[in-house]
């Protein structure tokens, strides 16, 4: 989604979150990523200064006061952790694994197709529901290569075995990844 993203043209504005909005962000992180709850203070402390950068594609980038990207948020309020954060806390999201043949397509920004998850090298948790945020791992690799949203449940993926299973939101090498720090001067 952010493979051809140009921040100079697609940023519509930025502002510092109020303390009440920061508390709401902390609560949303704890609700949407329950395994990450013990570590939420390390990333979004109670007194954290969070910068919200609004984009034209209905996403918001949430950065800390140093400009480090923490989360992406869609218009439905769903939070997608930045890939650097997923690498730091690999247990924060449920993981799916794609086979070796899908790696280059995923790295180019393509959505994850059902056959890439159901083949011999792919796997996904059996209790995975549609609409969940997941970390996408690759067969034989130790770190996540993408963060996405499931469009189908695990049972639906296994039954249909064709079509798009996961919408690719943030991938290694996209513009969010390349910008390690955003200009967060508010």
Proportion of beta-strand residues: 25-35%
How are the strands of the biggest sheet laid out side by side? 1-2-3-4-5
Largest sheet: 5 strands, antiparallel
Give the structural class. alpha+beta
How many DSSP-defined strands? 10
Supply the CATH architecture of the largest domain. Roll
Radius of gyration (CA) equals 16 Å
Q: Stretches where pLDDT falls below 50 for ≥5 residues?
A: none
Instruction: Average the pLDDT over all residues and give the rounded result.
Output: 88
Along the chain, the helix and strand elements come as HEHHEEEEHEHEHEEHEH
CATH fold name of the largest domain: Sulfate adenylyltransferase
Gap between N and C termini, in Å?
26 Å
The DSSP helix count reads 8
Number of domains: 2
**CATH class group of the largest domain:** Alpha Beta
In one word, what is the shape? globular
Helix content: 25-40%
Question: Could you characterize the architecture of this molecule?
Answer:
InterPro entries: MCT-1/Tma20, Pre-PUA, PUA, PUA-like_sf, Uncharacterised_CHP00451. Residues 94-173 form the PUA domain. GO terms for molecular function: RNA binding. Its main location: cytoplasm. With 186 residues, the protein is of the alpha+beta class. It folds into two domains: 7-88, Roll (Sulfate adenylyltransferase), CATH 3.10.400; 95-171, Sulfate adenylyltransferase. It contains eight helices and ten strands. The protein has helices spanning 7-10, 19-32, 40-43, 83-88, 103-107, 114-118, 154-160, 175-178, and strands at 11-16, 51-55, 60-63, 69-73, 79-81, 95-98, 112-113, 133-138, 146-150, 164-171. It is globular and about 45 Å long. The mean pLDDT is 88.
């Amino acid at each position: 989604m952010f493979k051809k993203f140009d921040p100079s043209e697609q940023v519509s504005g930025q502002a510092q979150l109020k303390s009440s909005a920061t508390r709401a962000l902390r609560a949303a992180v704890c609700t949407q990523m329950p395994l990450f709850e013990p570590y939420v203070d390390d990333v979004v402390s109670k007194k954290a200064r969070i910068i919200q950068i609004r984009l034209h594609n209905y996403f918001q980038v949430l950065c800390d006061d140093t400009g480090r990207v923490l989360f992406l948020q869609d218009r439905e309020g769903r939070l997608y952790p930045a890939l650097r954060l997923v690498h730091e806390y690999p247990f924060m999201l449920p993981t799916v694994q794609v086979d070796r043949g899908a790696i280059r397509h995923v790295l180019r920004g393509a959505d994850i197709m059902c056959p890439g998850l159901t083949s011999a090298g792919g796997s996904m948790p059996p209790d995975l529901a549609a609409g969940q945020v997941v970390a996408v791992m690759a067969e034989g690799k130790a770190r996540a290569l993408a963060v996405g949203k499931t469009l189908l449940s695990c049972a639906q993926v296994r039954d249909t075995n064709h079509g798009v299973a996961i919408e690719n939101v943030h991938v290694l090498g996209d513009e969010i990844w390349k910008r390690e720090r955003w200009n967060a001067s508010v």
